[in-house]
Amino acid sequence: MSEHAAHVPGTTRRRLRGISEIRSFFRTNTSPVYFFGPTAFNLLGIDRWTRNFSYVVYYDSWDGAHPRVFSPKSKPPVEFGSSEDVTKYLLRDPEVQAFLAAKGGRPKVAMVFLDEETEQIWNGKKSAKEGLDSAVSRGNEQLERFEKANKSPA
User: Fold this and answer.
1) 65 versus 134: which is more confidently predicted?
2) 64-67 long-range CB contacts below 8 Å, 24 or more apart?
3) How many CA atoms lie within 13 A of 133 on its CB side?
4) In sequence order, what are the beta bridge partners of 14?
5) 141: in domain
6) Per residue in 115-138, is it b (16+ CB within 10 Å) or e — as a string?
7) Residue 40 CB: number of other CB atoms within 10 A?
8) Degrees (nearest 5) of the Cα angle 82, 38, 46?
9) What's the rounded mean pLDDT across residues 26-33?
10) What HEC string does the chain produce?
């Protein structure tokens, strides 16, 4: 621990002080870190600062040419209602899960678009099937409300 880094009471972590310690922390990172989202643009460039960083995205803007972007090859047509839906889809995708397993380690995940349900799936409090069933149910409820609100007079 450097002379400037302070121990954070109650944890095994140390407090980083200053840009040089923050940069060193991320450049010497040994855990895989993944950004999940529709595209890599939200955190584009952070892979230059963070060792073991990869983007897991639905839309690959580089068509496979970016070395740190992973996008599942099999993508059936899906209409997403939000960026959170894209993130949930990626978390459940078998190709993505195989990619993460092959990389090994205990991954850390960065998400710009996160909702409570995604967090429950990620933490194992809800299965992927339960999450999908819940999303379908919410979608059906929204469609019913829309139909009622836009019902033409008879």
Assistant:
1) 65
2) 66/40
3) 5
4) 7
5) no
6) eebbeebbeeebeeeebbeebeee
7) 24
8) 130
9) 90
10) CCCCCEECCCCCCEECCCHHHHHHHHHCCCCCEEEEECCCHHHCCHHHCCCCEEEEECCCCCCCCCCCEECCCCCCCCCCCCHHHHHHHHHHCHHHHHHHHHHCCCCEEEECCCCHHHHHHHCCCCCHHHHHHHHHHHHHHHHHHHHHHCCCCC
Q: Which amino acid is located at 128 in the chain?
A: A
User: Count of CB atoms within 10 A of residue 105's CB?
Assistant: 11
**Helix axis angle, 83-92 relative to 94-103, nearest 10°?**
60
Tokens of 51: 């060792």
Mean pLDDT (the chain, rounded): 81
> Model's pTM, two decimal places?
0.66
The count of domains in the chain is 1
Residue 25 domain-assigned (yes or no)? no
> What is d(CA 42, CA 64) in angstroms, rounded to the nearest whole number?
18
Asked if residue 13 belongs to a domain, the reply is no
**Residue span of the structural domain in which 106 resides:** 31-114
